[in-house]
Amino acid sequence: MRRIPILVILMLLAACSQESERMYTVDEFIADEALLTRTISECRNNPGELRDTPNCRNAEAADGKLRLQNMRKALGG
């Protein structure tokens, strides 16, 4: 009997919790530069809260990867 109220409370908490933000991979950020630019901007505008989120880390990794690719192209490599 005691399990029923606990289950009801857990279901209510799950229903009220915030919807989680979709996580993007490094490759998805590389493929969509508008998404990359927007995410990097948001992360840099609020580093205290967002710096360690998966999307910020992946966006920074994608940005670094794109910069290296562009430098190789510019140098003829």
Describe the global form: elongated
Q: What pattern of helices and strands is seen along the backbone? A: HHHHH
Rg measurement, Å? 19 Å
Domains (count): 1
Q: How many separate helices? A: 5
Poorly predicted regions are: none
Major beta sheet summary: none
Strand content: under 5%
Helix residue percentage? over 70%
Explain what this protein looks like in three dimensions:
With 77 residues, this protein is mostly helical. Helices cover 75% and strands 0% of the residues. It contains 5 helices and no strands. Helix 3 packs across helix 5 (54-74). It is elongated, with a radius of gyration of 19 Å. The N and C termini lie far apart (70 Å). The model has no long low-confidence stretch (mean pLDDT 87).
What distinguishing features does this structure have?
mainly alpha, 5 helices, 77 residues, elongated
Question: Quick gist of this model?
Answer:
By secondary structure, this protein is an all-alpha fold. The chain has five helices and no strands.
Q: Which helices and strands appear, and what pairs or packs with what?
A:
Blueprint: H1 3-16, H2 26-31, H3 33-45, H4 47-50, H5 54-74
Helix pairs in contact: 3-5
